[in-house]
Design a protein that fits this description.
Helix content is 32%, strand content 17%. By secondary structure, the protein is an alpha+beta fold. The strands form 2 sheets. Strands 6, 7, 8, 9, 10, 11, 12, 13, 14 and 15 form a 10-stranded mixed beta sheet that branches. Strands 4-1-3-2-5 form a 5-stranded antiparallel beta sheet, sandwiched between helices. This is Asparagine synthetase B.
Length: 421
Amino acid sequence: MPLKKLYILLLLVVGFGAKASMILLPMDETTQQNHLKAYGITYWALDKTYKVSWLLNYRGGSFLLPDSNDIRRECQIRGVSFEVLSDSQANGILDEISSPSQNMETVVLEKAPKIAVYTPPGKQPWDDAVTMVLTYAEIPFTAVYDEQVLNDGLLLFDWLHLHHEDFTGQYGKFFGAYRNAPWYIEQKKAAEALATKLGYEKVSEEKLAVSLKIRNFVIGGGFMFAMCSATDSFDIALAAEGVDICEPMFDGDPSDANYQSKIDYNNSFAFKDYTLERNPITYEFSDIDTTNKRAGILPDNDYFTLMEYSAKWDPIPSMLCQNHTQLVKGFMGQTTAFEGTMVKSNVLVMGENKINGEARYIHGTKGKGMFTFYGGHDPEDYQHRVGDAPTVLDLHPNSPGYRLILNNVLFPAARKKKLKT
């Protein structure tokens, strides 16, 4: 072979060897300009059948994708920072992660999960933090409500979010402050009409039937994520099955005498030993919530800490806690956080405010499925009130609080394997 041809061949070999073949979406604090939309890119890539790896504890939980013009273009359009890596650079990162001395792990994401958001018709996206961040991240979802749930529509989905909801049939305990407000009157009327249409005499009975369907979805292998009042009201509805805990202004007849003694904590997912709030005027379901126990916690010092887990031995909580900071700004809601002593011992507390003994972010297993409860209404609206203006997520593209929601969205995409936890 002539020397010139040999030289050209060597250049080609070197060129191909150095060719970039992977894209890294860095998720650390200083490099990624839009953490939230990076999850959307990852979901989009999975939906296009690209192979994706989640690099737990590597630069804030980065994502590794194959290099393609399509992915580069999507990142540029959506304003997501990315780094182009050669084969050798990517392999070097994977070798570093696999080292037993490093608290890191590579998790393969297999397919884009099918997402359902439980939300009543007519709700605006900004009424619910999850709907809002899914829309912002451009992750597709399907809105479902009672009729679809009762007709086994959840079988079509992998992941379900529960809207800011009251599953006990007490209309959010808004009676004290808003019983004369047109929106409250209209929502109560609509809920009663829906219950009647679906064959139930009371809204509380219809909501219990919905709760049981959701419970069965999880037991059968589904992933459920709930925020704010959907967390404790769902658990209370399950524990109060067969017990009337609603006062006359909610369902037209008195509650059961001494109903507290009839609550069966064994039926609930996450909470135990709580006392229900009997006063219908009080904007509270029980003493699970810590909203009224936070006298020493002010906006300036309201933070909760994410737990650190072994990525190799505890990949599930590690995935759910991926972030660019372990200290997350607190935020309030009807259910702000959970009394730590009332969280069941088999439920994992992944985020807590130790000063106040609050569990803010918890996770557990039920049957073949899993659930995550996250206290508070909107991670970037400290004290969200009825009628407040919507949060503009373009102003919070790196929100640690919203990242926790999106961790849960991608979690069902992880390759199933026998886990240590």
